[in-house]
């Protein structure tokens, strides 16, 4: 993919790798990600197994799989908490971090879907969450493609602008964000128009949805740079 590029074309990526993404800093991120996902899994599991309401088998399968995934994540995180393993298996560690970051970006959607069960306007909230989630994945893919193009254009050389040029306010790569803003605005107006009871719960779910989308798009914004470092 980068056969024509030279070492100096990746200068800024090397700087990032030796600074905030230094292997020594990895355990902190992994444990933080584990606890974030673990909290969601704990709340989800307690809510599903502790409720008196009838729930479809889907929810119990979801809770069980979340527990299994969290347990596997815990074991691998524990493995990479040892400095010796961090430096010895850097490539595997980088791949694991990418998977963890992607998982974190989706974890809160799982929790949000559970919170909206039997809630007022639940179908509307779930629809907007699904569209936002798909938009976030598309944005991550587009940002990764953008990163590849930026490397080829020399944006990561010593005097390059890096992955993002914030002077470019509107590009094909940030259209999912603009679409998300428009979608949220329309959804907010529609929700306000429909509210006739349970206003507190509706506003609470809206704030929770906003935070969920914000986390996913924030990770989608930052992770392409890390994908490039893994490949290089």
Average pLDDT confidence is: 75
Query: How big a fraction of the residues is strand?
Result: under 5%
- Radius of gyration based on Cα positions: 20 Å
Helix content: over 70%
Largest sheet at a glance?
none
Distance between the termini: 10 Å
What is the approximate shape?
Answer: flat
Q: What is the number of domains?
A: 1
Please write the string of helix (H) and strand (E) elements.
Answer: HHHHHHHH
Task: Specify the number of helices.
Answer: 8
Structural class: mainly alpha
What's the total number of strands? 0
Low-confidence stretches: none
Transmembrane segments: 29-50, 62-80, 92-115, 127-149, 170-193, 205-231
Keywords: Membrane, Transmembrane, Transmembrane helix
Description of the structure:
The structure is a single chain. The chain is an all-alpha fold and 232 residues long. The protein has 8 helices and no strands. The chain has helices spanning 11-18, 26-50, 57-79, 83-88, 90-115, 122-152, 175-194, 199-231. Helix 2 runs antiparallel to helix 3 (57-79) and helix 5 runs antiparallel to helix 8 (199-231). The chain is flat, with a radius of gyration of 20 Å. The mean pLDDT is 75. The chain crosses the membrane at residues 29-50, 62-80, 92-115, 127-149, 170-193, 205-231.
């Amino acid at each position: 993919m980068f056969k024509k590029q030279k070492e100096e074309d990746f200068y800024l990526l090397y700087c990032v790798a030796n600074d905030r993404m230094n292997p020594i800093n990895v355990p902190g991120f992994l444990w933080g990600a584990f606890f974030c996902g673990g909290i969601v899994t704990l709340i989800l599991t307690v809510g599903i197994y502790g409720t008196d309401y009838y729930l479809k088998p889907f929810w119990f399968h979801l809770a069980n799989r979340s527990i299994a995934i969290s347990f596997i994540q815990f074991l691998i995180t524990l493995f990479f908490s040892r400095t010796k393993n961090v430096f010895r298996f850097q490539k595997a560690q980088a791949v694991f971090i990418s998977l963890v970051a992607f998982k974190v970006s989706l974890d809160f959607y799982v929790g949000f879907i559970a919170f909206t069960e039997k809630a007022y306007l639940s179908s509307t909230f779930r629809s907007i969450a699904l569209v936002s989630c798909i938009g976030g994945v598309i944005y991550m893919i587009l940002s990764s493609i953008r990163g590849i193009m930026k490397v080829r254009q020399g944006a990561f050389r010593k005097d390059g602008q890096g992955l993002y040029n914030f002077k470019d306010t509107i590009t094909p790569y940030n259209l999912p964000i603009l679409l998300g803003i428009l979608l949220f605005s329309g959804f907010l107006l529609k929700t306000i128009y429909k509210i006739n009871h349970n206003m507190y719960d509706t506003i609470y779910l809206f704030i929770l949805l906003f935070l969920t989308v914000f986390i996913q798009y924030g990770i989608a914004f930052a992770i392409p740079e890390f994908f490039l470092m893994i490949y290089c």
